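Data card: per-record layout.
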Amino acid sequence: MENYKSRIGKSQMRQYMGDLYENPMVVYREYIQNACDAIEDALSMDLLHDRKKTTIVVEIDNFNKTIVIEDKGIGIAKDEIAPRLVDVASSKKVGRAGQYGIGRLNGANYCDQIKYETTAYGECIKSTLVWDVKKAREICNDPDLDPTTEEIIDEVTHLLPTEQEDSAEHYCRVTLVNVNNEILLDKEKVIEYIAQIVPVDYSLDFKDNLLKPSLELGTNSEYKERFKFLWIYKISVNNIPVEKKYASEIESFKFGSMKCFTLIDNKTQEEYAWGWYAMNEEAKQMNDIPVSFIRARHCNYQIGPSTLLSASYPSPVSQAYFIGEIHLVNTNLLPTASRDGIKQNDTKLRFEIILKKFFKELYTLYNKTSKFRSEVVDKIAEANVQIAALTLRVKQEEDASEKAALRDKIKKCKDDREKAEVKSKAYAEFFNETQSWNAAEDVVRSVNKSTIKTYNQKSDVVKKDLQIQALNVEIFKSKLDNPASTAMIGKESGQNNQSLVNGANVDNHSNGESIPQKPKSELDVYINLSSVERKLIKQFYSVINAVDLPQATKDRIKKNLKNKILK
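The structure for this 567-residue chain is written out next.
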């Protein structure tokens, strides 16, 4: 308007000072985000060569009520102090996580002073800028004062005299003085927050036991480069390195193979996001673990809460079956200024349609996998255990009527097993069509551990060397190729009533007793262990086999080893 000078009132200052966010922990995200951006600038100028080798240091001093966040990024030259640290909402960052220029004041509501100490490469001085945010709050809260936001900033910012510094140094140190919020001073909560929100690395356990093995699978191999180029920074809190909390086993949940995916518009072939997910081996809900749900991330920063994407699932409970990440890569899919959600636009609307379709497929996956466990694998495993246990009792029982009763129970177990085997075909077709046999394998492994292994560890079973063989997912796969139930092969061909029950030979004697035979391989008894454990045991066996000892001695060593490992 002509002859009118606009003004930005003090209410806007409140927004800059943290009123934009409800969670005080966002303070750490904003300052660490600025530190990460500074490291990227240092990399572009060859001041640094590997972002993963430069640690962003967070120091929390409960006694003095101070928080320090320091990076070895590009730093800020003396002539850039005012536009970089005084001006607000004037960021020139593009394609970065921090691109709004308002985050540096986020700690203002929780301390009395924000102090910036910085130097740029080639300068011999350290510059120090102080924001008197306590005074800024007092001005904003005084109803008798009505300054503009610019006037408040000019009044509460002070540039201190420069100090000498090594010209090779480049850094920025932010100090929050006299912190008034106890949550921000809680080291454990801070580590937990940073581990979830900020782009730190995965744990070594997760990488070695879940990520790397999964990337060797054919369906995931193309994603190796994606993980390789994820933005990851080293961050420590009071000298404790911070990592994402993902692991191969969390609390009572052991995770199976993870699967990677890409979300693409099938019509335009436009890519929206990529990511990964995993279920626990038992295909059960996970509500209260630190990494529950599939989370949205941009530039490897988490967007919003862990439940941000819950509305895209067929039902709210569906999200509890998975852990994982969705990394937004479309340039029109950006976080809101508060980073509590995704900006509303046409791209987001299309993304939500694609996401809902994907989550519906995941719903089908966990539903089928869960039923595959309860209706097929559990039933077969429990039947095999009962048959083995009852067979042993028949052999020990002298009373004829009791023997007959036990044989009737054996017959019922066989009938239950056969019903489960008939059901397995439909599930085999599903896992084949969806290329999700890894989920079925995880379930089988879990049942082996909870049912088969538990039985095999019983002292009486170990003493008499009567362990039964673990289930093998390949047997379920074979049923897809041959419509006839595996358990019926022998009966249909008239081969002395001998059947194959999930890889274990079971002789059906005329007295109704079913006796599990020895596994095909001496290493098959370890099938329920992890791949790393099985490889180690295989090495032990190769050493034992290579030693010049009587075969009876070798067998005894292997038996003792088996009993100790499986006990």
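Known properties of this structure: Residues 93-101, 482-519 have pLDDT under 50 and may be disordered. The longest strand covers residues 157-164.

See the next section for split statistics.
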